[in-house]
Amino acid sequence: MNDEKADDYIDSIVKNILHVAPEQVGFLSHKNEEESMNETTKDINDIVRNFLNVQPMQIVPLLKDDNSARSSHCSREDLQKIDGFTLEQSAIFDESLAHSVELEFIIKQCGEFGRFQCTHFFLLTLLATCSGVASFYHVFGTAVPQHRCQLPQHLWANDQFQVHNETHKNYIDQWTPKDVSSNCFTYNASFENRSIVNCHKWLYDRTVYGYTFTEEHNLVCSNSTKRTLLAAAFSFGLMFVIITGGLADCFGRKKAITLVFCLFAIVSIITQIALQLRILKEKYQFILLFMNQIFTGVACTYFICAYVLIMELSSLKYSGLGACLFLVGNIVGEIIVTFLAWVIKDWLLLKWFITGYILLLSLSYVYFIPESPRWLYSQQNWSELESLLSRIAKTNGRKNETWLPLYPTVVTARKLFSSNTFADEQTTSCMKQSYPLLTTRDAIKRLYELHPTMFRVTSLAIVEFMSRAGTLIAPIIDKTNSSTNQRMLVYIYATATVIAAIFAFTLPETKGKPLPGSFDEIQGWKTKKLLQAFY
């Protein structure tokens, strides 16, 4: 094979791999037959690296004669085992390459951390504060302030929690038992045959928490179980995250977030008005607040969808930053509700502020929330993906010329890198050693997350579901925190923490690794040791 034919042959192979025009490749031109084969190999590696953003690796050199060329051709049988890889395993990593390299590279060309990402990182972080505000409300709304039994009317007609004078203090001491819980029991009205009885009315200290739902409905002592149910109701609502996660993977992150916030808006407005007008009896008000807590928990299932979305909007380099900012937003939400509770000190008014805050942020932003480009790719929704990439590039000040010529590579990647393509004799003569060039470095170094795109939110939702099962039973366990079993509770929580830490060691490392697109790609991780042979 002469040099001119070899140049055309290699040029056509790289053109097929990159799906670009020959003039964009722009190589090779050998001056004579004695030119170094190492220089030729370097030229090919440089071109492939520039387009696919991979590290240079050894590729088969050009062959000078027809006999050598024929001997280098790989048959279909030869392909079925290339350095320990089966054809099926090759297809898995080819699919991973098509997703993690081409799409990742195009996102970088559109701007991996430009104005588009900064804007939505900030807005999604603001949206994360809604979860912190909603989850931390019950800490103040159903807080238990200091309280004591009310004195009989004939002793002190207008009894209040604060001590007025020495006489008032003496009455409180006389009617408060010393050997039992002073918050729940008192003496009867008879001084001659005094006995300890249950309290029916309580007085509360409003200096710290203000007017709480606990005070309004006397959720103390024998009624404290109701307060535990309110705390568990929010966790129960969060367990619907497994449904929200499935919706996010089936219909998109944006649609799932929009759905839960619209549901929250409808239910919250109805319950808030009913609670404010006090048109229901006391026990029905409790049921109404209980249902409100459940639906608030359901609304907060948006958190897992938005958490995944903020990581999928940028490249691998900045996805970790987005995740950290999102979690910081949740903490900021807890700080916000703490400040509001300190200023307002009224459980119903505080709930109005929280509901308004969540509705204002969520409903004003959900329309502008972008869909995940990685989810659009996994669904093969090419038209919306191209539109989104154009929007990202335009917002980041990038021209279409920087990324649009590479977009067909994403669309045709699966066909281009299919096993039938590599089985063709005319293609495989120079592919046996270029195969690791196109798969090994990026397939290993960029395996970014444990869960694939198509099932990422569902997988994380299952984990969240199991964690919320723990938070659901935690208030019930704490309800038994009497002095006799306080030490046992410490042992239970400490043991659970140690077990969780042990299980954490079984997780694979995901730092600096690309997003898997399917479970097949995760299955391909089992051949990691074989892939490392190509380093």
Automatic annotation (TrEMBL):
Its main location: membrane. The chain crosses the membrane at residues 229-249, 256-275, 287-310, 322-344, 350-369, 489-507. It is a multi-pass membrane protein. GO terms for cellular component: membrane. SUPFAM superfamilies: MFS general substrate transporter. It is found in: Membrane. GO terms for molecular function: transmembrane transporter activity. This is Major facilitator superfamily (MFS) profile domain-containing protein.
